Amino acid sequence: MEPTALKENFKAYQKKMRAYNHAMGVLQYDFETVMPKGGAEGMGETLGILSEESYKLSVSDELRAMIAELLAQKDALDFQTRREAEELLEDIEKIEKIPMEEYVAFEKLTNKASFVWHSAKPDNDYKSFEPFLAEIIEYQKRFAKYIKPELPAYDALLDGFERGMTQAMLDPYFKNVRESLVPLIHEIGRAKQPDMSFLERPYALNKQRAFSDYLMEVMCIDRSHCSIGEVEHPFTTEFNKHDVRITTHYHEDMMHDSMYSVIHEGGHALYELHTGDDLIGSVLAGGASMGIHESQSRFYENIIGRSEPFIEYIFPKMREIFPSELTAVTPHEFFLAVNKCTPSLIRTQADELTYSLHIMVRYELEKRLIGGSLSTKDLPEAWNAMYKEYLGITVPSDREGVLQDSHWSGGMFGYFPSYSVGSAYAAQMLSSMQKELDVWNLVSTGELAPIIAWLTERIYKHGMLLKPNELVQNACGAPFDPKYYTDYLTKKFRAIYSI
Amino acid sequence: MEPTALKENFKAYQKKMRAYNHAMGVLQYDFETVMPKGGAEGMGETLGILSEESYKLSVSDELRAMIAELLAQKDALDFQTRREAEELLEDIEKIEKIPMEEYVAFEKLTNKASFVWHSAKPDNDYKSFEPFLAEIIEYQKRFAKYIKPELPAYDALLDGFERGMTQAMLDPYFKNVRESLVPLIHEIGRAKQPDMSFLERPYALNKQRAFSDYLMEVMCIDRSHCSIGEVEHPFTTEFNKHDVRITTHYHEDMMHDSMYSVIHEGGHALYELHTGDDLIGSVLAGGASMGIHESQSRFYENIIGRSEPFIEYIFPKMREIFPSELTAVTPHEFFLAVNKCTPSLIRTQADELTYSLHIMVRYELEKRLIGGSLSTKDLPEAWNAMYKEYLGITVPSDREGVLQDSHWSGGMFGYFPSYSVGSAYAAQMLSSMQKELDVWNLVSTGELAPIIAWLTERIYKHGMLLKPNELVQNACGAPFDPKYYTDYLTKKFRAIYSI
């Protein structure tokens, strides 16, 4: 085919692939936000049909032929087209390496396992779930071998969620987390705790909604391209850089919960909203990885949103929206309250400082489960021992312990670390950003635009053109270094607790 | 192919067709209700891609082969499968009869014409729109010849919106409307008018929302299968019988506007919600035609919803929701106010009695435009003369006259009559229903379930299995007869105005 025509066809093909993703995304968003609940079955069927069509597009002979022709003239290709071809080829090869019948059997297994987990958790019945988990792990080991036979099995799984993430990188990372943070958390346990009671007063929902609008404004989020929906478990979804949807959940007696949801999801949204225009319609549009995405949400949620300059800046407006609720509360008290550190059982409710210890426990256990040195039978005991050792708390039941997360029932081994690594990327980016911007001065005057511009240039605009490690290098001028994260946390929490 | 396998493939194929419609419906609903407005362009592109795929499915060789094989053994087929095959074949043939290049040119023309109409209307500039309208009419005449060469051109167009609807049926219908209603409307113009001022008081939006929920409850609408969205111009959409979405628009100073939107759209919803279970996933699921659909919305909106027994039944609850707003208003006064008859310029704001005269004007003009006895140049003059003659009002500008509706700019000639015929179907159904049910006694005690059951049996459950005229015969035991409609209106409005 004539090169220009080939490239045009390839771009049009990607647009079609994106259109299916767009449609499925809207259906899923509708499902989560406004669908009458009786529509679930029909929605599931339609999603099934679209996802089959979408799958066919992603492995079709037509696509393979285009990729082969493009990569045959690799050196003549522009960078973006070459990356698109490579990315799509990698997806095809990954799919092809797993024998279809094993893949189908695994899908069935995880469907069944999710179903079992959904009642095992409330019933506190690990025993019923354990055989499924054991079988899932066997599949995961085999799949790891199929996909990246040259890597240790757990590295192959990690790479599936965050390209280039390995045990060689995570072992020292979590060692550093453990060695720096565990003693700090113990020390904080003995310090005086801030008062949080004013956060538990009733905050009217319509005022909270107005507050969300204000937070979006402070974050420079263009509402004509980003809406706020209301759901049980907040998430962000994007269909293209011009249509991003964040969601939140309002509780009358936990205003800070929605506040930090909005800032967190707003961070995800900023990333998507500032993808480069050249990537519209490309398979490389959107965030580079889970870890990089999480670095952005947590940068805004924790580093900016839980900083004292930020609280001081937004406080006058908060007093305007919540005059009676915030009676006699100072910005400093509010700042202390939203940074209270308490080791707890549930990962999703963990504070900024203890969060990574929850992940570390999961990382260590996954490594042993996949490596074969821990059996699923002994897992709850190992879980409980680590919570005791690192967080200093006793796990009263598997419901609040090993059964709390859905990830393993869905076969997602290797996913958890990206949550924690995101926070660590963010801290390193802050340090690098501070060399060029007076970050805290900007935050204290509510000028987030230069910060967003800095991140756009180094991270957002590149979409998936660059890989996670390349983006970190690009933003920080150096490879990933976990020290920034523990230094940042240590300094911040020593100051908060005056220790 | 083995008959069972063939039938199964045919059903699976229809499910796939429905899945595309489902997805496009959700995207459109999202577009109208919650999409951030910056998402419009991307949504349009995705809808374009899906609609192309959906089009390919509807004319594919695979589908043709299945239909041919099924219809070759017509007599051995069950009724539903035979109807499905016939319906899909008719669609294919209709598409094939129009030369592709003419169809594409017409699409371009109507896109352009809609664009021009969108500014011609506010600018009151018929002249800029007129050449487009003239060209659209030429296409419509040609298309009519391609599709049904055996019919007069306007009949072929009417049939495209309501199968079996002809000038031979509509001429006596509108003659009857004209002869019975025009003198009545003139007489009412001289009678004492009811007070409507209390409807223009402010009714808080959250109270109006609660009132909508109550109306849905009275209409026995299962909210787990039907939601209420908020939009500029209310509509109903359905993805399958388990997921129907009505919409409304709240105005503080026009509570009756949203009230009757909800009842009207609720009528559309009831029809869809009670489609037979056998039709799930079939191309015959959903309402039989525009006219039959409109008969249901208007049955609930006007016949039930604007009746005195209904107002009396709901009034205690209305007083509970709007205690201050309805101070010193009686059910009878409310009933009179929502039935006030005033000849007016704008079709969409017309009352129950004058509505069909607006349609009659359009019908007569379309007939002449397609028949060739009226040129687009002379259209505004003809329009204004008919409004003067039948509604007794002077049209001050084309903006409020011939330019008011979008239909013609979209090439939809033959669509308007189905709005009016729907009301006439509804009146005939009422008369038939009254032979078996004590309708007004049921309405006065809020028991709509037997009425819904009656309509389900005769209309709703059949989906598109039966054609419009067959459904009327089925419900009324007789063919369509316009006398019921004018009798119903005459009796109702003579009583209201004591004339």
Put simply, the count of helices of chain A is: 20
How is the quaternary structure best described? homodimer
Specify the helix fraction band of chain A.
Answer: 55-70%
- Total strand segments of chain A: 3
**Largest Cβ-defined interface:** A-B, 40 and 38 residues
Rg over C-alpha atoms of chain A, rounded to the nearest angstrom: 23 Å
Give the amount of beta strand of chain A, in percent: under 5%
How far is the N terminus from the C terminus of chain A? 69 Å
Helix and strand run of chain A: HHHHHHHHHEEEHHHHHHHHHHH
- Please identify the structural class of chain A as seen in this structure: mainly alpha
* Shape type of chain A: globular
Q: Please mark out the parts of chain A with pLDDT under 50 across 5 or more consecutive residues, or reply none.
A: none
> How would a textbook summarize the main sheet of chain A?
3 strands, mixed
Mean of residue pLDDT values of chain A: 96
